Amino acid sequence: MNKLFQIGAAAAFGAMIASTPAHALLTTPETEVFSFSGLSGNTPLTFNGFNAGLGTLVEVLVSFSANVSLTNTAAVLPVGSGNQVVGSPTPLSATGTLTVFNGPLGIFLTDSLTTPGFVGTVIDNNTVQTVGTAGPSVLGGSNSITTGLGSFVGGLNLFSIDMLGSATQTGSTGSFVLGGATGMAEGSVTIQYRYNEISTPEPASMVLLGAGLLGLGLARRRKA
User: Fold this and answer.
1) Model-level pTM?
2) Are residue 31 and residue 99 in the same domain, yes or no?
3) Structural domain containing residue 210
4) 3, 58, 81, 169: which could join 179 in a potential S-S bond, CB 3.0 to 4.6 Å?
5) Domain shared by 80 and 163, yes or no
C-alpha cells in the first residue's frame, strides 16, 4: 500500500469515528391536571405522542401528585323537623379510603382518612352541611416506562385517570338526620420522553471524509 493510499484510508476512518454519537435527550415536559368531587369518577388526560423524527424513544418518565380529602356531612330530613343535635353520646365521624390510579402510566395514589368526631347541631335549612373534614393529604410519585414504547409514539395519547373511594360514617345522628361522606381529589400528571438523538456527522468529519475519498481516488488512479 503506497503512502497516498494510507493517508486517504486514515482520513476516511477518522471521519467515521469523528461522527457525532447518539446521546439521550429529554423532551419538554407536558402536564395535565385532574379534579374529582365525589367518591368515584374518571377524567381523560391527553398528551402529545413522541415525535419519531427526533430520534429513538427509549424511556417515558411519568410524575404525578394529588391532594385528597374526605368530608363528613349531615342534613335534616324531612325538612321542617327542626334543628337536630348529633354526636351524643358518640361523636359523628367518617372514615374512608380514596385511590387515584391509571394502569398504563403506573399511577397509584391511595390514602385512608378519618374526620374528627363532631358533636353539635345540624340546622334545619334544606342543605347538606359539612360537619368535619380530613385532609388534604398530599400524595405523589413517579414511574419509568421502558417497555411497550410503540404506543407512545406519534399522534395523541389518551389516558383515563380514575378515582375510587369508599367511606362509612359512625356516631349518633338521631331519627331526622341523614349522614354521609364524600371525597375530593385534585392533582396533575406530567410526561416527558427520553430519546436517543439521530446521529449526524460533524462539519470537520465531512472535511476529513472528503479528503479521505480524494486520497483514495488518487491512489487508485496512480496504481492504474
Assistant:
1) 0.75
2) yes
3) 1-18+204-224
4) 169
5) yes
